[in-house]
Amino acid sequence: MPLLDIRNLQLEFGTGRDAVRAVDGVSFTIAEGETLCLVGESGCGKSVSALSIARLVPTPPARYVGGEILLNGCDVLKMDQRELRSIRGGVVSYVFQEPSASLNPVFRVGNQIKESLKLHRPQFATDDEVIRLLKLVGIPAPESRIRDYPHQMSGGMQQRIMIAMALASEPKLLVADEPTTALDVTIQAQILELLRDLKARLRMSILLITHNLGIVGDIADRVAVMYAGQIVELSPARALLQRPLHPYTQALMNSVPQLGHELDRLQAIPGNVPNLGQFPRGCRFHPRCPKAQSDCSQKAPELVEVEPGRWVRCPYWK
To answer: Quick check: 84 and 21 in contact, CB under 8 A?
Structure first.
């Protein structure tokens, strides 16, 4: 049984005729000790899907209208508030975007980590445990850094503090939402190496959300590609990077500059991700797709297993 099993998740914002579906039939699993990368352009539903795992999307304005979120075999959508509090942090922890905005600027980082310990492991809510966590995520001189405020740290160190806070509760699943955004390339590599090391040492699963295909090959076991609220391709990472099948995945790959290849212009995907509530009829990618056929604007394709372990939402993927 997988640690996380999301089945046909559907989430809307608004009610009645004004309701817009941000997540539409999303399904994927994460096994124990596995890393799944959720990839796609901004606005495709990656973060909303991830926040739904612990029901962190406020309801209202959001509304779960279908599907199941099975975490350790229990449906999160049927849990009461007491049960939700036990899984938030205890089973699944989050590293949110932009650590400078997520950390409280008026509290020392040691106290912020200790707060997580008090909630989930109160017997370990000590300075010694905070220092151990800071060492675990590679903070130098943790005995003195424990008294620092967030503004006294660089972006990379703030991100490590966020990871330490997430690890304080010893979760089984770590959700990292764009953990390398706004960091320089060297720091990005250090954060990815840290996540790989922590996964191996703590045997936890990771859901990594990113729009950067360049980091997928460094850390992912499998990749789920999202577009306009739907999964359009689900595949082992190596197979996807070597031979992407869906036209959208191919377009994302082509837009990544290659070392040793000189180009006058980068290849961009024409058009934009459609706004919520304004999805085109049929295949949602067909207005931007170079392989679109006449029937693509009429019939919405299903996510189909076209090869062992490879799922694609396109009848013209070959």
So the answer is: no
